[in-house]
Amino acid sequence: MNTIVIPTTQNIELEYPIANLGDRILATLLDWLVLLAYWLLLNTIFDLLPWPPFMGSPMRDYITATDRLAYLPIMLYPLLMELFFNGQSLGKYALKIRVVRLDGQPPSTADYFSRWMFRIIDIILLPFIPGIVAIISIAVSKNGQRLGDIVAHTTVIKLKLVTHFADTIFVDTAESHEVKFPEISRLSDRDVSILKEVLDAGLRSNNPDLLLKLSDKVKAVAGIESSLSPHDFLQTVLADYNHVFGHDAVRSKK
Questions:
Q1: What is the 3-state secondary structure (H, E, C) of the chain?
Q2: pLDDT in the model for residue 247
């Protein structure tokens, strides 16, 4: 399974699976079914309308009426859906995949527009094999990108984290949380990341000796004195660090 690490604020890196070719093709087919249903519905409405005698048969006016009304929404559907629904069309929503930027920033209107414009090359250029350019590009590119993605610096991911937010150093703290150990400013993100990893391992294995050694190490590095138990001490250090350095990042993920 190919994955991609998306950086976020406060040095958080979250790993997502890249949407595979099958997911993207199926999402596109579902979108085409939605557009086909729209097209058929519009045709039915025009056929049932009471046309004045001077306008002739609705079928004869097919090009001048139905096509002109249906063509524009069909062309703009991918752009408008991704722009207003956070990188998802109906097909992408059904498959739980989404367009994201490789640098972790939200895609801009220009990014979505670039992806949409390059559909002419990716999907429409060879009408006898629609989408063949996109299929080849997605298959051979490192990050599963069609040409439009490459230009926009985007890709499509599955909305299923490989690295969960809970696996990072950041945890939620209350607004009223009082920092007990201001010395945590001497710790780095890497220090706290190791702290949380070892803490989780110690809790899973029910290993109090591991927690004791870890708490002694943290006290030595940060210059903290405390009579709390190793477990309570480490949890407090983690909460303090998050409240001081990561609280805004945690709230932004909600």
A1: CCEEEEECHHHCEEEEEECCHHHHHHHHHHHHHHHHHHHHHHHHHHHHCCCCHHHCCCCCCCHHHHHHHHHHHHHHHHHHHHHHCCCCCHHHHHHCEEEEECCCCCCCHHHHHHHHHCHHHHHHCCCCCCCHHHHHHHHHCCCCCCHHHHHHCEEEEECCCCCCHHHCCCCCCCCCCCCCCHHHHHCCHHHHHHHHHHHHHHHHHCCHHHHHHHHHHHHHHHCCCCCCCHHHHHHHHHHHHHHHHHHHHHHHCC
A2: 46
